[in-house]
């Protein structure tokens, strides 16, 4: 997210608005913002409604919960909920009419979208789709 926020001005200059969604509760997001510098607004989706609507929510099994706890991550404390649901790391470009024009979904959280790819996708998404009649 930090790397993407470095390109925020370029993307916003195309007319887009950038927002980030987190499964954490607002208090945890505020704590994170104190630790890292991010220029985009981050909103809480602790009920994972947005992640579910975009089709990127998944339930963490008991083994996964234990693995996360081993890394010092307590999902219930972070979200304030006991649903044990997380979003797959994703980026969406949504047009003014609510249509998804681009999506990048990567289940392996270690791999994030290349900012150059996102900028290119944003540029291409500005084009109006041509409807060809058959």
Provide an overview of this structure.
By secondary structure, the chain is of the alpha+beta class. Strands 1-2 form a two-stranded parallel ribbon. Strands 3-4 form a two-stranded antiparallel ribbon. Helix 3 links the parallel strand 1 and strand 2. The longest helix is centred in the last third of the chain and has 11 residues. The chain is globular. It starts with a helix and ends in a 9-residue tail after the last helix. The model has no long low-confidence stretch (mean pLDDT about 90).
Précis, in short:
The chain is built from 7 helices and 6 strands, in the order H-H-E-H-E-H-E-H-H-E-E-E-H. It has 134 residues and is α+β, with helices and mostly antiparallel strands.
Characteristic terms for this protein:
7 helices, 6 strands, alpha+beta, two-stranded parallel sheet, about 130 residues, Glutaredoxin
The N- and C-terminal alpha carbons lie at a distance of 42 Å
Share of residues in helices:
25-40%
Return Rg in Å.
Answer: 17 Å
| Count of DSSP-assigned helices | 7
- Overall, the morphology is globular
CATH-defined topology: Glutaredoxin
Largest sheet: 2 strands, parallel
Percent strand equals 15-25%
Shape-level CATH architecture: 3-Layer(aba) Sandwich
Topology as a string of helices (H) and strands (E): HHEHEHEHHEEEH
Class by SSE composition: alpha+beta
Poorly predicted ranges: none
**Average pLDDT rating:** 91
Number of domains: 1
Number of strands: 6
The largest sheet has its strands arranged as 1-2
